[in-house]
């Protein structure tokens, strides 16, 4: 696997007539990798395949040197992998401790004392010690996201697959989550699927953009911003030739598209590059 924690080779997956993934090939190493793409791009399908919840129609997946197509190796992958789905399916009458303990039992941690020690470790790592005995239905949205992260941290997994981990968080909660994920990415592989381009810019050393089931960019956040180099400009009014335009806090209009001669060009952001790269789907989603 050439040192890669995750290796995907020519992964395909369809649902009836919908092609969710078409020939995805990637090698992902230690660190925090971001996965961007508009709705329907194939992000959730890819993450579910990585979590071994779905099998690909065609292609090969290896995680931590193990082949997901072989039952015994697939079971071992699950023991070494943490998965945080966007909708965890909480038992809302459980306390935070009870829910994480329940997931630990599902992960074959049968010894009560050792299991409870591991549950407490995961809760502490997710910053949940103070609310461990509170019922999930009484927790804020940010705290519930932390509970979802805590169950993914059980067993100190070498690979973490996180689907929209900062969705619904307020600015302070998002910053605290970024700090936590950055620390986790120092010694393991973390793959984050998100719509938050600012999270990608702040956290990710590497960025993968999916569109219509294909990888359309694999590089750094700076590489994505460079897609918009020379195509972002400021003007006193909305330029009718712009693909997207909005009024800034300073009262001028930021235009994205094919700049007219003499335009006042500005430094592009990763959001600018993303909107241009995936085109109409992302423009509609942004609107």
Description of the molecule:
The chain is an alpha/beta fold and 287 residues long. It has 10 helices and 14 strands. The chain has helices at 43-50, 71-79, 96-106, 112-125, 141-152, 171-184, 197-203, 221-226, 270-278, 280-286, and strands spanning 6-15, 18-28, 31-36, 58-63, 66-67, 81-84, 159-163, 189-193, 206-211, 214-219, 232-235, 244-247, 253-256, 264-265. A 6-stranded mixed β-sheet has the order 6-7-8-3-9-10, with helices on both faces. It has a 4-stranded antiparallel β-sheet with strand order 2-1-4-5, covered by helices on one side. A 4-stranded antiparallel β-sheet has the order 12-13-11-14, with no helix packed on it. Helix 3 (96-106) crosses helix 4 (112-125) and helix 4 (112-125) packs across helix 5 (141-152). The radius of gyration is 21 Å and the shape is globular. It starts with 5 loop residues before the first strand and ends with a helix. 39% of the residues are buried.
